Amino acid sequence: VPIGTMFLNSVRTNEAVRRSLLAFPESIQFDNFVSAWVGGDFFYAFINTIVIEAGTVLTVVAVNVLAAYALTKLRVFGREFFIAYFVVGIAVPGFAIVVPVFFGLSSLGLVNTKLGLIIIYSAIFLPFSLLLMRSYFVGIPRELEEAALIDGCSELGALMRVTLPLARPIIVTVVLVVFVHVYNEFLFANVMLQGDRARTVALSFYNFVGRYSEDLGTIFAAAFIALGPILILYFILQRRFVDGMVAGGLKG
C-alpha cells in the first residue's frame, strides 16, 4: 500500500497531491520523474552508489570467505578470541565512532572519496557477515575438504573447489544483506561526502527533499526512483535471500 500510494502520487500534479494523498491521478504526469532525475542529480548518485556497493561487497565477501574458512576448518590460534572480537564489533553503534573515523580518514586524505566510504562500510558489515557465513561453513563436513587435500589440493584449492560451490547460497545472502544496508546507509555518507556530484542515492534524495519541499509530486517521483533498484533486486532474488538466511541459521 505505501509503495502503491507513492507511485500514484508520483504521477499526479502537485495541486492534486496537496488536496489528497490517497486518490487516483486525474491525469498522468511523468514529467515529475524527469524533474526529479535532473533536479536530484540521480545519474551521478547512482554511479557513486554502484562503485561504493561493488567495492564494499567484493571486500566483505573476499575477506569473510577466507576468515570463515580459517575459523571453522583450520586450527587457528586464538580462534575464540577472534569470534568474540567480531561479536563485539556488531554491538558498536555507528554514531559512537563517526567522529574518530572522520578525523582518521581526514588525516589520510580519504574524506569525500569513494575509497573512504568503502573502507568504512567494509569494517561495519564485516562482523555480522562473518558470523553469518561462519555458521554456514560449520555445517559443511570437513571430510570433503580432507578428501580434496588427499587428492593433491592445497587448503586454498579445497576452499575454491569444494567449499565455495557448497556455500553459494550464503554468499548470495551476504551480498544481498550488504547491498541493501550500504544502499540505505545515510550517517557516514552524510558526514564523509561533500558536493552535489559526490553523493550517494540516499544522500541525494535527502538533499532533494530539502530543496523541493513544496513540490510533493516530484518528491514522490524522486522517492520512487531511489526505491526502484533495491525493490527490483529484492523481488528477483528474494528466494535466494530467504533460503540463505534459513540455511545459515539451521547450519549454525
What does the model show?
By secondary structure, this protein is an all-alpha fold. Helix content is 79%, strand content 0%. The chain is built from 13 helices and no strands. α7 packs antiparallel against α10. The chain is elongated.
User: Which structural class do you get from the secondary structure elements?
Assistant: mainly alpha
Number of helices: 13
Helix content: over 70%
Which residue ranges are poorly predicted, with pLDDT under 50 across at least 5 consecutive positions?
Answer: 248-252
Mean pLDDT: 85
Largest sheet: none
C-alpha-based Rg, rounded: 22 Å
| Percent in strands | under 5%
The count of β-strands is 0
Which outline best applies?
elongated
Task: Put the structure in a nutshell.
By secondary structure, the chain is an all-alpha fold.
Keywords:
single chain, 252 residues, mainly alpha, 13 helices, 0% strand, disordered C terminus
List the helices and strands and how they pair.
Blueprint: H1 2-10, H2 14-19, H3 31-39, H4 42-73, H5 79-91, H6 94-107, H7 114-138, H8 142-150, H9 155-166, H10 168-184, H11 187-192, H12 201-211, H13 216-251
